[in-house]
Amino acid sequence: MLEYAARAIEQNDARALFRVIDARSRHAMASIVADRRAAAALIRSSYPEDQRADALADLGSAANVEDAAALFADRCKQECMSDLASRIGAPISQRQDGDELVVETPRGGTLRVTGGGSDWYGIVWHYDELDTERQRANQDRLLVEANARTYQLRAEQSAALDGEAVTDDAVDGSAPAEEPSGDPGVPPPPTPELQGP
């Protein structure tokens, strides 16, 4: 795993490096991207036009990337790569710390990794921060959904007041009911038998 990570860093390939980030961080980033993209779609389709730009900006870059690997690539640029490179090397010692394995490398660097067993090890990368962000993104999506329902209801009410509401007849395709002939307050025309010469 460390050899693969070193090669990905040497090639400046963040997507390849993402594959050896620990599963918890990868799953958190996937959840963040899914919630941010869902919220962005609702904002574009339901929010008033004058509020969309600010609402979309509040979602951050995660709303504009295609997947979790792209989010990682957006956040782990040269400085991040260099930091990881300085800590990766052949392990000289390791110790267990809860669910994480602490690995000491020859350059004096320390890496925390998770996994083992049927899973390969993954480098722990900002998991606590990502988990907090994941929860916030989920709550934000729920708020956007509630706002979208409110804006949709307002739009329907406004359309109804403006006489633009779609009627049931228009929806089901049936013709409007015929009005009864004549006005109940106006007497019918005389029949031929009662008309004068």
Structure report:
It is a single chain. The protein is an alpha+beta fold. It has a domain at 2-135. The protein contains 8 helices and 4 strands. The protein has helices at 2-10, 14-18, 23-46, 49-58, 68-75, 78-87, 127-161, 168-172; strands spanning 93-97, 100-104, 110-116, 119-123. Strands 1-2-3-4 form a 4-stranded antiparallel sheet, with no helix packed on it. Strand 2 (100-104) and strand 3 (110-116) form a beta hairpin. Helix 3 runs parallel beside helix 7. The longest helix is centred in the last third of the chain and has 35 residues, at 127-161. Residues 165-197 have low confidence and may be disordered.
Short note summarizing the structure:
By secondary structure, this protein is an alpha+beta fold.
Largest sheet: 4 strands, antiparallel
Give the mean pLDDT: 83
Q: What is the ordering of alpha helices and beta strands?
A: HHHHHHEEEEHH
First-residue to last-residue Cα separation: 111 Å
- How many whole angstroms does the radius of gyration measure? 32 Å
Helical content, roughly? 40-55%
Broad shape = elongated
